[in-house]
Specification:
The structure is a homotetramer. By secondary structure, chain A is α/β, with parallel strands linked by helices. Helix content of chain A is 31%, strand content 29%. Chain A has 2 domains: 5-83, Alpha-Beta Plaits (2-Layer Sandwich), CATH 3.30.70; 90-283, Formyl transferase, N-terminal domain (Rossmann fold), CATH 3.40.50. The first copy, chain A, is globular. Chains in contact: A-B, A-C, A-D, B-C, B-D, C-D.
Chain lengths: 285, 285, 285, 285
Amino acid sequence: MSRKTATLLISCPDRTGIVAAVSEFVHRHGGNLVHSDQHTDRTAGLFLQRLEWEQERFALSAAEFPAAFQPLATRFEMTWELRAAEQPPRMAILVSKHGHCLYDLLARHRMAQLGAEIPLVVSNHPDLESATRDLGVDFLHLPVSPATKSQQEAALLERLQAERVDVIVLARYMQVLSAGFLSHWQHRVINIHHSFLPAFAGARPYHQAHERGVKIIGATAHYATQDLDEGPIIAQDVVRVSHRDSVRDLVAKGRDLEKIVLARAVSDHLADRVLVYGNKTVVFD
Amino acid sequence: MSRKTATLLISCPDRTGIVAAVSEFVHRHGGNLVHSDQHTDRTAGLFLQRLEWEQERFALSAAEFPAAFQPLATRFEMTWELRAAEQPPRMAILVSKHGHCLYDLLARHRMAQLGAEIPLVVSNHPDLESATRDLGVDFLHLPVSPATKSQQEAALLERLQAERVDVIVLARYMQVLSAGFLSHWQHRVINIHHSFLPAFAGARPYHQAHERGVKIIGATAHYATQDLDEGPIIAQDVVRVSHRDSVRDLVAKGRDLEKIVLARAVSDHLADRVLVYGNKTVVFD
Amino acid sequence: MSRKTATLLISCPDRTGIVAAVSEFVHRHGGNLVHSDQHTDRTAGLFLQRLEWEQERFALSAAEFPAAFQPLATRFEMTWELRAAEQPPRMAILVSKHGHCLYDLLARHRMAQLGAEIPLVVSNHPDLESATRDLGVDFLHLPVSPATKSQQEAALLERLQAERVDVIVLARYMQVLSAGFLSHWQHRVINIHHSFLPAFAGARPYHQAHERGVKIIGATAHYATQDLDEGPIIAQDVVRVSHRDSVRDLVAKGRDLEKIVLARAVSDHLADRVLVYGNKTVVFD
Amino acid sequence: MSRKTATLLISCPDRTGIVAAVSEFVHRHGGNLVHSDQHTDRTAGLFLQRLEWEQERFALSAAEFPAAFQPLATRFEMTWELRAAEQPPRMAILVSKHGHCLYDLLARHRMAQLGAEIPLVVSNHPDLESATRDLGVDFLHLPVSPATKSQQEAALLERLQAERVDVIVLARYMQVLSAGFLSHWQHRVINIHHSFLPAFAGARPYHQAHERGVKIIGATAHYATQDLDEGPIIAQDVVRVSHRDSVRDLVAKGRDLEKIVLARAVSDHLADRVLVYGNKTVVFD
């Protein structure tokens, strides 16, 4: 925690010499690499890399970096992003009535395990207000009805922007967000779906799973996109079930999956370990 | 292996007193229960039970059992099946070109772990003939083309019936069997699908999984029904994958899943542990 | 939740006729079985059973049950226990400095998922006082030093007895409890050990695991006994790790395991699903 | 399969500039990297890397490589190994009476999935001779008794050396090999132990696991060393068990684990993905 690092995420057409050039660049400016991992998607002809180095002896400030790096980026046609991490990111959590993911994230927050600030929790229901406030976070109740859907979303957008929110976590928020809303936080809205996607997309996945008689259930954390349940998958996990499990049992087992999978995705995102390309992710570990 | 047992599989409307009545029946006729497990599906209002007892001191022969049991069965409106297991069941394996499931089943067969006879392996390709014959099992090559599909299936049906086959395992057999064919072996044709159903039904599931960017892949063994990939699921398992896995890697990891999941389903079926109701299974363990 | 049930846990020498006799008994007194499962340990020659029935039409009160059941119990040499469950059990949580299991249990408690009252949390450190109190539970700080160990335990014992505590959860409590203390709550003190026991018993299991280079780590919930890390195991789970995981990463991954495994064990215990015999458990599911 | 690649495994003290220097070296000589992964063990202060590149346009032959690479290796104090892979490695399999791992490896061999030649299988029992020969591999029976132990090992050594064996797989070979024998194949003898090491080292691990009442069992593939069951772990996997599983059930479930875990370790070893340092492995994936 004490060692300050910078992270660079790169994607570009696959060519020889990229790794050598980039690590030589970091090395030449005094950066001591603490993590370097790359991935080549041969089908897509794409090269993706994550580098993390100690900032202490690194010669370039975040402001100086772009100009110094641009020649190399141009040469290899790179899309790149630098995270120099002076301020922790600001994260909002959206919930409805189910509290298990919220409790879990707020507990991690209080134990200083997330590396983010949580300026507020927003819900379309009042049920989780005391839980949120008791754990020391501000709570905003924004009720919604079919008639008021667009106004509610506008109010939500305004408040999240006023709070300078960097990342949004949908911790079992049961409302669909519009493409316009999502465009403000592309690949920065993380949703948890309570099934092993693409199985059982849509409503009531545990009922669907019980009806189908599967022997394993799952949970999927993904970036929210305009196409519901179709966004890039960040994390998934599963648990074994049997004929002895009722829908209620699936829901109970699923709750534990959901909160762990969501927390893992949120942690990886906040640690700048997730790189999206096409409709997929690379999660550097 | 040495202890000879009989197995009774029951399903009936859920009422009080069934367990007491059935276990009293077995007890009264001298049967020492070695396994008794039941399941109540409250949604369906259905009671399902498996009982297994030592035949040695049991007073009723397989021939006498129906008349003695019928009053009780009638009283509780039971569907029931007795497996008294003097002769091992006869199992045919159907394959195409992929050999991993075939090798695995034949190895278990040679190590006497399956409790079945395997009179023959049938394939629409000649590739696995030497593997089959080297492992001591008869091989029948029945090539098929779009034009000869119905004749090939008729020949297959005739041969399997001539061999008095009780159960058919589709060990990566890439041909769809007709409803007419399947009707001869209802809930006795076991297929392995190389995905975590219902995700990625249909063709080329590993390609679909790679395209979607899932973090876990699976395999599903199920009874083949007229609706492809929709039959009652017997066993499933999964393995973690990452962006580092190409389609070829998924195929390789999946092979190990497929053979283990298929073998587990076949073993459970052969041990009379699987009870189908509706489109689901109870697998008593 | 609304349906009131009674649970009977039985163990006795394995003989024929037990299932018939017991289910007939419940049936005769008007009990509608909602769950019945049994297990025979052939090595130990032991029969174990769990029955759960609706209390509504059951003819015997908890007070009348023993006299009515005793003849049958005597006939089969049964050890038995009835849980008629009018009052929820009272559960104390003991912690030291790590909060992840505590937060998780208190969150489940607030969401009414445990079916227990939590009169207090006790710790030898003050660190988790505000977390506990913010979540609405009383907190007792009982510091301990080598010199004051026995007095501290005496004070702890007195307070837990005063609170009429039925079950104690050691949610990463880093003090060893004496045999005398444990004797007051035999098979009712649940501990979480942060390894896959019996691997890495004792101190600093994540350091041991990292040193040994294992590819999987685990967590184990068990009943605390005089022999440290040797009590009957209730629940275990594991997660895959690699050379990329530092000790700090193992600790972080392990935290998620620990809290889920502990909560599962606590839930099973509170639902009267755990039957201890010898140094093992049957967990009826 | 068609693309010929070379693999370089490196370990050296962790310093800045290694990645840049090595990838620049490969790039300068025309090597197109198809895989590059590195790992830094901060506790040990050690840097480990695996590079794999296409040989087609690479300017250096295997014979020329050492002289060209040595200056760089010296500068960074590297231990390194080049695998230029013209001939497939030669692998011997040692077995006793259990055939499941043997069948599995020989089936993979016949399906050309291993990338190795298997000149022979050796056993201290005759049981698996026909299985081996039927699958097309030579079989050598070398019986052993306490009195003949050293002579048998000498005969084994002689034969394996005569066959120019590169790697030895102990596929449930129930004899301990001496330190002298192992010294000929350091980190090239792969053993499968039928438990989740370090739990249940030594004899009869399934009996130990059943006795202890664990809820999960495992299997461990590791390099054999003088200290039994203490060598560097290559692969592990686990499966859930319950009170319903007898020792016989554990053995049956364990067999499937053992063969999959062993095959995974063998495949990783043969693909030059395993780097041993201290008593641990890095398995590059």
